[in-house]
TrEMBL record:
Residues 9-121 form the Hemerythrin-like domain. Belongs to the hemerythrin family. Keywords: Iron, Metal-binding, Oxygen transport, Transport. PROSITE patterns: HEMERYTHRINS. InterPro entries: Haemerythrin_Fe_BS (IPR016131), Hemerythrin (IPR050669), Hemerythrin-like (IPR012312), Hemerythrin-like_sf (IPR035938), Hemerythrin_metal-bd (IPR012827). This is Hemerythrin-like domain-containing protein. It holds the Pfam family Hemerythrin. One of its GO terms (molecular function) is oxygen carrier activity. It comes from Dechloromonas denitrificans.
Amino acid sequence: MGLTAELLTGIQEIDEQHETLFEILDKLQGVVKGGDNWSVVYFALNELSHFARTHFVVEEALMRLHGYPELEQHIAEHRAFSAHLAQLEEQAVRQDVSLTIIQLIQRWLVEHIGVSDKSYVACLRTMPVLR
Ligand SMILES: [Fe+2]
Ligand SMILES: [Fe+2]
């Protein structure tokens, strides 16, 4: 599962960041599958949550700049995801992270980009700044 054509938003910076998120997730999946040491898994998770946070800040700034009407709902989705990752990071210190959890994260990302990110981009496209 990665950045398929239907997940592209057409905003280069955003698409590149989504690509990076999937790359980090691939790496995370690899280390979990490989049964690597917990610290390797922990650092991959840490990288994912840091990069996700940076990406969310960029999107939120973009939506705020354009006065996107569903900003609050979108931010809530980002926050819930970040909170989930933070919790997982903490757990990774004590117990093995399962592949199922990594797949759930992937599914969330695909769903979020495919539905929520695509809607804000579509909305922003109707506004003057991005024309
Ligand atoms: Fe996004
Ligand atoms: Fe988003």
